[in-house]
Amino acid sequence: MTPPMTPPTTAPLPAPTPDRAPLAGRTLLMSGGSRGIGLAIALRAARDGANVALLAKTDTPHPRLPGTVHTAAAEIERAGGKALAVVGDVRDENDVRRAVAATAERFGGIDVVVNNASAIALQNPGELPLKRYDLMMDVNVRGTFLLTSFALPHLRDSRHAHVLTLSPPLNPDGRWLREHAPYTVSKYGMTMLTLGVAEQHRAGRLSANCLWPATTIATAATENLRGADKAARVSRTPRIMADAAHALLTRPAGDLTGQCLIDEDVLRGEGVTDFDGYRADPHGDAALRKDIFL
Q: Which of the residues in the chain have pLDDT under 50?
């Protein structure tokens, strides 16, 4: 839980102003980010004037999902940031090395790594094809390991070093193993790697934390799974994760590390008490659906 830092308010975090843009000039390297939560985090940083590099495979549009790494980069530029689009696969060692090198060369270093890319399949052993299992483990666990590992030399040179991984708290409830053990293993693997980085740098100036939503988030992917109307009624927009990520990434490096944090708790620590503005259906009153692993 993040301790309260400001008096309570009843609205989402205010928009950045010239004297309140703490990520201005800092460089974020993110896996994925062509759409959804990753893009929302990137755009929130861009509004401060941050540099944002995206490593993603989406060179061309997906048949059912909007956005590519190039359209995301254009949105980042329009939002006030500087963008670098790197077409590549977070599973591929050479692609990740290339993304890290290109980011450092273009922007002079790396201050933040956001492990955002993730693959999901909810079948269990005996049901899940090996190809899908390998994809989840490679994108989620291997990708987190590669991107964080190769960026660490640059993070150690930064005075604002953060690793933020979009993965859940380690919840021993057997429900998640019963319902989707392979996906659970892959997401908990992301969390454990991040907590390991935090412990490895406990005495230094680097924060490594995990962030997870309290409720389901309405994105194009969830709309395809559940239907747009149903997803909107019970979910929040990616903006809540973007505001929570911004709050974490603007804290002093090393101030808060080794934590598995929930978006609501982070924002409550920032003084937010009214979350209605984050609803995907702004006029809805249906009960929001709690996200998995909670």
A: 1-11
Asked if residues 40 and 241 have their Cβ atoms less than 8 Å apart, the reply is yes
Q: Is the pTM here over 0.85, yes or no? A: yes
Sign of the dihedral defined by the CA atoms of residues 271, 188, 215, 44, in that order:
positive
d(CA 247, CA 241): 10
Terminal Cα-to-Cα distance of the chain (whole angstroms): 14
- C-alpha span between 271 and 8 (Å, rounded): 4
**C-alpha–C-alpha distance, residues 57 and 34, integer Å:** 9
The pLDDT of residue 285 = 84
Q: Which domains does the chain have, with CATH numbers?
A: 27-278 (3.40.50.720)
**CB 146 within 8 Å of CB 90:** yes
Catalytic-labelled residue, pool 133, 183, 188, 278: 183
Respond yes or no: is residue 188 known to be catalytic: no
pLDDT value at residue 9: 36
> How far is it, in rounded angstroms, from Cα 113 to Cα 233?
32
At residue 15, φ and ψ (nearest 5 deg) are: -70, 150
Phi, psi of 79 (to 5 degrees): -80, -10
Residue with tokens 């290109």: 102
Residue 230, CA atoms < 13 Å, CB-side half-sphere: 7
Question: How far is it between the farthest Cα atoms of the chain?
Answer: 56
Backbone φ, ψ for residue 206 (5° rounding): -150, 130
